[in-house]
Specification:
This protein has about 90 residues and is an alpha+beta fold. It folds into two domains: about 55 residues, no CATH class; about 30 residues, no CATH class. The longest helix is centred in the C-terminal third of the chain and has 9 residues. About 5% of the residues are buried.
Length: about 90
């Protein structure tokens, strides 16, 4: 998935969240579906419920709150507290 993101390709990650009856794959099985329809992996067959998450979206951390919340989450941002201050001011 990191390669797909790095290359800017559009794709979606499909994850089996529930199965019913006899299925070759169980909950947690994953498959990537590329924009052109090609796939990486398989979810097998049978009756399955699937969660789909786009891969192409840029990662973004949005923090609501201030003070202790910002300080605790700042290390998760690429630019730390200075990046948060810049974003808050709109620059």
């Amino acid at each position: 998935m990191a390669d797909i993101k790095h290359q800017g390709k559009r794709a979606a990650l499909a994850i089996v969240v529930r199965t019913k009856g006899s299925t070759p794959e169980k909950a947690g099985a994953k498959m990537i579906v590329m924009e052109d329809g090609s796939i990486i992996g398989t979810l097998g067959g049978g009756e399955v419920d699937v969660y789909i998450e786009p891969i192409h979206q840029p990662e973004k951390l949005i923090i609501f709150g201030a003070g202790h919340i910002t300080k605790a989450l700042a290390p998760l941002t690429p630019n730390g507290v200075s990046g948060l201050a810049r974003n808050r001011s709109g620059r």
